[in-house]
Design goal:
Layout (H helix, E strand, L loop, with lengths): L5 H4 L1 H6 L4 H10 L7 H20 L10 E5 L5 E3 H17 L2 E6 L6 E2 L10 E9 L10 E9 L10 H4 L8 E7 L3 E6 L4 E7 L4 E6 L10 E3 L10 H11 L10 E2 L5 H11 L2 E4 L12 H14 L3 E3 L19 E4 L1 H13 L4
Parallel strand pairs: 3-5, 11-12, 11-13
Antiparallel strand pairs: 1-2, 3-4, 5-6, 6-7, 7-8, 8-9, 9-10, 13-15, 14-15
Helix pairs in contact: 3-4, 4-5, 7-10
The structure holds 2,5-anhydro-1,6-di-O-phosphono-D-glucitol (AHG) and manganese (II) ion (2 copies).
């Protein structure tokens, strides 16, 4: 008779040991005596909206969710139907819990103040990229949602102000992303490391699957849109060539991987070790990615996982924002790879 090792193969038994996202957030909250539980409720709202977006994405081929919505956002980009849908769901979920007094979104020109009695006077503001990589939806490739949470700096009895949103990334209370890939995952940090949760759609629950995520210090994946190579500055070009050179001691040539969804590219590099970059170049002097709801949250996560994020010479988290939709070049990922690219940029600063 073949004996079955039920402890390793029985899913139900394994499930017993799993921690849900809700349980984890509450457990963490108890580690901070003064914590009010507000953040737990904000995560609750993000979790709910993520599930709705997950549902739509997973039937994208058959639902009326694929394609352009027919409008452009403030940055002149075609809004996809899913951009609009996700933006509305995140906004509604965050407004309904009454802990957030306003949001800023890639899909909204101005920040949105929540004026309902429930929300007015709340302590937090949230910045989001509701769907990152939205041009990938139509072709069934991974997309994501990025979020960043700050304490407001304006008095709670007054209106929300632009200054509440224009805070340097070092002030983030929490940040994270949801990746809608071959499975859906939520990855977040509150400044105490990075943890990842995988969604079980059969019961609608996120389970802790990646505890205390660490990015390898030395990666061997580089992720950049090389179609723009001719436009890049000399230092970036030299770094790309460095990635492609043979050198056994540093595991080069590195592997090139580029999905075109920051969330998906970042997530892979976080797990495997690597660098993602979107540099500035002649037509795009500040690069493409937005500081407040793309670069800062990813920079916070990268640093919390032991990596780095730079604009080529300065720490992303220390940049002083002046505009809601401001762009910045981004180099993010494994610590030693970000060091290397900065060094190449510095060496060729005048060429
Ligand atoms: P979004 O869909 O939110 O506008 O972001 C798209 C961003 C980012 O996710 C991705 O890495 C980058 O744009 C891709 O740009 P290119 O197509 O220029 O490579
Ligand atoms: Mn984006
Ligand atoms: Mn987007």
């Amino acid at each position: 008779m073949v004996k079955q090792d039920i402890t390793s193969s029985n899913t139900e038994l394994q499930l017993k040991n799993l921690t849900t996202l809700g349980e984890f957030v509450i457990r963490k909250q108890h580690e901070y005596p003064g914590a009010t539980g507000d953040l737990s409720q904000i995560f609750g709202a993000i979790r709910l909206a993520s599930k709705l977006v997950h549902r739509e994405i997973n039937k994208a081929g058959i639902a009326d969710i694929v394609g352009a919505a027919g409008a452009e956002n403030i940055q002149g980009e075609q809004q996809q139907k899913l951009d609009v849908y996700a933006n509305e769901k995140f906004k509604a979920a965050l407004a309904a819990r009454g802990l957030v007094c306003g949001i800023a979104s890639e899909e909204e020109e101005h920040f949105v103040e929540f004026t309902h009695d429930l929300s007015r006077g709340s302590k937090y503001v949230v910045l989001i990229d509701p769907v990152d990589g939205s041009s990938n939806i139509d072709v069934n490739v991974g997309v994501g949602t990025i979020f960043s949470i700050y304490k407001r700096v304006s008095p709670p009895d007054g209106p929300v102000t632009l200054d509440d949103f224009l805070q340097p990334g070092t002030e983030q209370v929490a940040a994270g992303y949801v990746i809608f890939g071959s499975s859906t995952m939520l990855v977040y940090t509150t400044g105490q490391g990075v943890n990842g949760f995988t969604f079980d759609p059969s019961i609608g629950v996120f389970y802790l699957s990646h505890e205390n995520m660490r990015i390898p210090e030395d990666g061997h994946i580089y992720s950049v849109n090389e179609g723009n190579y001719v436009h890049f500055h000399q230092g970036v070009k030299k770094y790309i060539k460095y990635c492609q050179e043979i050198d056994e001691s540093t595991n080069r040539p590195y592997t090139s991987r580029y999905i075109g969804s920051l969330v998906a590219d970042f997530h892979r590099n976080l797990l495997k070790g690597g660098i993602y970059f979107y540099p500035s170049y002649a037509n795009n002097p500040n690069g493409k990615l937005r500081l407040l709801y793309e670069c800062n949250p990813m920079a916070f996560l990268a640093e919390q996982a032991g990596g780095r994020a730079s604009n080529g010479s300065q720490r992303i988290l220390e940049l002083r924002p002046t505009e809601l939709h401001q762009r910045t070049p981004l180099f993010v990922g494994s610590k030693n790879m970000v060091d290397d690219v900065e060094q190449h940029i510095a060496e060729h600063a005048n060429s």
